[in-house]
Amino acid sequence: QAAEANQQRMRAEQEALTAETTASFLADLFQGAEPGFALGDTLTAFDLLRRGVERAENELAATPVVHARVLFAVGRAYRFLGDYAGADSTLARTLTVLEPARADAPLLYADALLLHGTVFSDRANWARADPLLRRGVEAYVASGDTVSVDFADALRQRGTSLTQQGAYDSAAVFVERAVRVARTLYAASGEVHNSFPGALNDYGFLLSELGRLDEAEAAKREAIGIVEEAVGERHPDWVISMSNLSRFLSQAGRFTEAETAARQALAQGGEVYGEGHAGLTFILLNLAESLRGQARYQEAEGPYREMLDIGRITLGEQHPVITIALAGLGESLRQTDRAQEAVPLLREARAVTSTNIPGNAYGDRARIELARSFAALSNGAEAKALLEDGIRRIDAYNRPTPITSDDLRTVLRELGLYDQ
What we know:
By secondary structure, the chain is an all-alpha fold. The chain has helices at about 1-30, 45-60, 65-80, 85-100, 105-120, 125-145, 150-165, 170-190, 195-210, 215-230, 235-250, 255-275, 280-295, 295-315, 320-335, 340-355, 360-375, 380-395, 405-415. The N and C termini lie far apart (about 65 Å).
């Protein structure tokens, strides 16, 4: 507890050192968005962010920590708005500005590395994400902060990226440590931070990938119970935990239970997030997948389409989960004798898949779904080309992936399309 108190004090002092200047700068920046303040100057969120970067470069060069903190806030906003190019360039600049003064703000430096890494892991670009996430965790350790909520979150980010790449043994080191740190903090304070249920959900995901389904389910249900007891159901952490449980239950073939969990998450998510929020995309996808798993194809169409309407705006057209939704909707239409409507969706999904970096579980699983759908439509050539392209891409990637090139060859054999 003394170590945790020391780390909290260190972070508080660091924050206090620059908070007033940073707040004043940002308040002045956003004042430009107020009606009547600057006549004829109508600003969008992206205009404000670009203006923030320009002003920070011009006005804060003499105070690198404040300069970096403003850039960090702008980079985080870019990521939230789905502008990954803006987030990438701004966070790269944050690290450059902060490098000479990193000893004065070691935790800000660590957070910037982690957020920059997350910008790439969001899109399964592990080659760019991994070094940044690794350095972020190392920066936390070097600062002496190994007992805080923020350190638990750093471990989570590193562990989750490794899990999604199929590097399960390496992932376990970080995910299990994140659970230990978060559990210790919870036991000491009784306060629930997202790091604890989040770490349990991450651990459950890892265990499910390892086939340890009973332990995975226990971890996910523990996460729900902790959040429910602390803050109730109308809270983002509860919604996320219930949605994660739905996804797990579908993967385990328990589609009726998965539907129940998804509907519970959606009912509360609508209240917590509001209409059209990115947080609804995964819930809607989980609901649609659970309905399709029960062969209730017509009912699945609605949540698939709603997910795509929201996801295309909030996540971007090229996000791997868009591929899953397109493939699922296309297959649902095919199953209800609407092949003419299904084929354009399946081909759109195929085009998105070609942009996904190998190693993303959503994108690679969608590739298999698409191949099976094309084969069922008597389009074996398209199915074969899709799978062979996946094999080439995974082999060239030369990194661990959850779905391997041999998995795709197995599907080729199942569909009678494999050339010896």
